[in-house]
Design goal:
Pseudouridine synthase; 3 domains; 18 strands; 16% helix
């Protein structure tokens, strides 16, 4: 028996309904929404591009809306996956039917335009680009950040990212494999083709990508090295924050002390999962928040105007089978803070 209770007919997928009278194309059909606010997309049948894709990403790409808009509609229960409510993180498969019940105007988002913003490129080939994101730069457009993002800079340097019918990611995040917070600096991986995007996303999902961060936390880490395994979800009292909650997603962070200072610890943290604010949340949960992290109660430190968190090491197997690894030194502002605290800048620990 097929896994779908029912599915819309289309030219490339079988129909599991015995009495189907729906048109065979297009995949996107319009009707009058339940709230009577006009013509909006009603149902979408997932095609081959939907293999193991997040529901919010799928909806964003298909409707040309921002991912946050898609997440809002899903959270309010106005999006059904195969007739049932689902989470934004639900995975779609070919043949799935996504139904939009209500208009969340305005759906349209401004088209992305290239912007001549300097980029520090560490490595590039036909499959990928590794860049050093500076602190203060937002990765992709979002509320309050319609320009000046990393994506705008990427489109100017790599125009092919915008000429693939949004196949290299969704409409607002072309090529983006993973993200860094606005005030986190360091190494980021960007895909240049649809195939490489799928390859790197799978590597991330299978925990085959090495992601290591250099951080300064408040107080002394005890023990000096450990694993923090605690589920992370939205903070129940503050939508801007994440927190360790029983209903959260499984999350694993490893850390080790690099330098023990009188009132701070310089450490290396390795992510085995990629949850929002993961390192910041996990360290705050053990009473050792990242220095300068106002959102999670981080202590102040000399000359520091942002969270002391830097993506300093990135490693993975390339599509050609070769293992590659990149290192990034502490940027000037974090190095100055460390020196002011009596720490040392070394080339081996941290990298």
């Amino acid at each position: 028996m097929p896994r779908y209770r029912w599915a819309w007919c289309c030219s490339s997928l079988p129909c599991f309904s015995r009495n189907c009278t729906l048109p065979r194309e297009p995949h996107l059909v319009r009707h009058t929404p339940v709230n009577g606010q006009g013509d909006v997309p009603a149902r979408i049948v997932a095609g081959h591009e939907a293999v193991d894709q997040r529901l919010d990403r799928f909806l964003s790409a298909k409707l040309g809306v921002s991912r946050s808009q898609a997440q809002t509609a899903i959270r309010l229960g106005d999006v059904l996956l195969n007739g049932a409510q689902a989470k934004s993180s639900a995975r779609t498969q070919p043949g799935d039917v996504v139904t939009v019940l209500r208009n969340h105007a305005p759906w349209p988002v401004p088209p992305l335009e290239p912007e001549d913003i300097p980029l520090t490129v560490v490595y590039e080939d036909e499959h990928l680009v590794v860049i050093e994101k500076p602190a203060g730069m937002v990765v992709h457009p979002s509320a309050g950040h319609s320009s000046g993002t990393l994506v705008h800079a990427l489109l100017a340097r790599y125009p092919e990212l915008r000429t693939r019918d949004d196949r290299v990611g969704d409409g607002e995040r072309p090529g983006i494999v993973h993200r860094l917070d606005k005030d986190t600096s360091g190494l980021m991986l960007v895909a240049r083709t649809y195939d490489s995007l799928r390859y790197f996303q799978a590597a991330m999902r299978d925990r085959e990508v090495l992601k290591e961060y250099t951080l300064l936390c408040c107080g002394t880490l005890v023990p000096a090295s450990a694993r923090i395994e605690a589920p992370i979800g939205r903070h129940p009292g503050n939508r801007l924050k994440m927190a360790v909650v029983s209903t959260g997603r499984s999350s694993l962070t490893e850390y080790e002390t690099a330098q023990a200072l009188p009132h701070h610890t310089l450490a290396l943290a390795r992510l085995h999962t990629g949850r929002t604010h993961q390192i910041r949340v996990h360290l705050a949960s053990i009473g050792r928040p990242v220095a300068g992290d106002a959102l999670y109660g981080g202590c102040v430190a000399p000359t520091l105007s942002r969270q002391f968190l830097h993506a300093s090491r990135l490693g993975l197997v390339l599509p050609n089978g070769r293992r590659a690894e990149w290192h990034s030194a502490l940027p000037a502002d974090l190095a100055a803070c460390l020196l002011a605290l009596g720490g040392q800048i070394t080339t081996t620990s941290p990298p």
